Amino acid sequence: MQPVEIRPNIYWVGMNDRKTELFEGLWSIRGVGVSYNSYLIVDKMNVLIDVTSKLTTDELFDHIRSFIDPSELDYIVINHMEPDHSGALKALLMLAPQAIMLGSAKTKEMLASFYGITEKVQTVADGEELNLGQHTLKFFSTPFVHWPETMMTYETTEKILFSCDGFGGYGTLNGSIFDGKLVPMAVYEDLALSYFVHVVATYSKPVKNAIAKLSSHPIEIIAPSHGLIWRENPKRILDLYSNWADYASKSGDPGVTMLYASMYGDTEEMMEVITQGISDEGVPTFVFNVIHTQVSEILPALWLNRGVMIGSPTYEGKLFPDMVHVLETADRKHIYNKLAAGFGSQGWSGGGQRELNERFESMRWKPLGNFEFTGSASPGELDKGREYGRNFARQILAG
Predict the structure, then answer these.
(1) Packed helices 321-332 and 352-362: angle between N→C axes, nearest 10 degrees
(2) What is the DSSP code (8-state) at residue 227?
(3) I want to staple 142 with a disulfide (CB 3.0 to 4.6 A). Which of 62, 129, 210, 273 is the partner?
(4) The CATH fold of domain 254-398
(5) What is the pTM of this model?
(6) Listed residue (244, 253, 318) closest to 286, CA to CA
C-alpha cells in the first residue's frame, strides 16, 4: 500500500505482512496477516512514531521518502521495544544518524541491551510534552500494555492517540486503513479480540489503568501499531478493550466452550450428546477439537465464556497430551474463574479425569463434575451424558 494522510501532515507509513504465519512465533495469523503501522509527522521538527519489523525496512524507508529524506528526521518515538516494532531501527539510524530516539527510561535500558544503542537516546517522563511547530506530542507511561517500557503518544492538535499495542488488532489493511463502511467491521473486531487475548489479556489491569489515565483527554483518532486506525468511532475500540479486560476478574458470559479430543471416536460420540444436553437448556456452545484446532483459535472463546466442558480420553493414565497443551496455555494467559466439568473414555484404567480435576484446582476453575465410561458408551450412558450436559448448562445459567 502507499502512504495515507490521516490528518494534515500526519501520515500512515506502515505496511502489511501477509507472509508471517505465527505472530510472536505462537499465534496463528494464517490467512489474515497483520499490519505494522508507523506514523510520520512532517513539521518544523519531523517525527517518526513507531518503527516496524526488520522484515519491512525497505518499504518503511520508501514510504518516508515520499515526504522527506530519512536524514531529515529529528525524532524517532519508540513506544515499545518488541522487535516487531523496533526491528528496523538500526537500519533506519544508518539513514538518519542525527535523529534523537524518545522513549521511557526502561526503553533506554532496552535499547542498549537489544541493539547496543546508547547514543542520542532521550527519556521522556509521563505527561511530558514536545512541541514540533504546528503539532505537540504528549507522552503517557502505560507499562505492561504490554511490556514494562511501553508508552503511548498523544498528538494534542488533532487529538490522535498513537497507542502502540493497546487497542490494536490482527488483520492486514485491505485498501482502507480506517474503521467504517469500507471494511468488514465484525471481522476486524473479532481479529481485535483474538489479538487482545493473545497479546495483552494477561495485563488486563494495566489496560484498565491506561484507559483511566487517558479518559481526561479527548481522542478523535486511535492509531495503534497493528490493525485498523479508528477514526470514525474511536470510542468503539476503547469500549471493546475495556469490556474484554473486565473478563480477567469475572467468570464470563453464559456460554460453554467445549474442548474435546478423541482417539477412536468414543469420547467424540459422548461429546455430541453432552453438547445436545447443553443446547437443550438454551446455552450456546462453542466446540473445538483440540487435535485439529490451533490454541490461538480456542483462547478467545475460553476468555469470554463462563463454562468449560472438557472431553478427554485417558492416555497412559493421564489427560490426552493435546488437551494438556491447551489448558497450560490458558493457565499462562490467566484465564481464571471458570465453571468447568469433564468427561471421557477411561480406557482400561482411568486417570485422565483425576488429572483434569487437579488442573482445575491449579487454574482457579470451579469443578462441577466428571463423567467417565469404559471403552464405548452404552445407549444408557449416552442418555446419562445428555442429562449431564443439561445439568451443567443449568449451573452455567445460575452463575
Answers:
(1) 0
(2) S
(3) 210
(4) Rossmann fold (3.40.50)
(5) 0.94
(6) 253
